[in-house]
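As a representative case, the lines below give one protein's residues and fold tokens.
***
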Amino acid sequence: MYSNLKENVLAEQLEHSRKMLINGSKIKFKKCRLWRLDNIPSVPGVYAFFDADGNILYVGESGNLRERKNEVNRTVNHSFRRQIGSVKFQGIKSGNKFCGEVESQLDDYFSTYLYVSFIEVNFGRLEIETYIITYYQELLLNSVKKRKLVISATQ
């Protein structure tokens, strides 16, 4: 019985975090450093990218959200940018990035169409990220993850 109670509490916490991330304010993405300083705190957390219509595209976690938002500007550092480059612009990576034209299209796409939402999470980021990815797997551009969620996400 104690085990079921713990599992129910965990499931409620995961679902609460999902709702906070999905229903939280969405900030228009910008590539500039000042945007990150003004909008993204240097805290651990879980984040999501959304398109202009509010559709969720990607979920991630980081020990420092501001630094992670900086990394999304570089193809070598962020799988979401690589996924968009491949899927949306049929880019083929050469070394650690796409050709200049695709990199430019990516910068324009991120600045024009993407929004970001985040929640601060000091403990359990990986579990929350995995839960949300599991919940929205059909909609996301996240690469397939090896880790599996013990508590199933239900829609």
User: Anything to note?
Assistant: Confidence is low (pLDDT under 50) at residues 149-155.
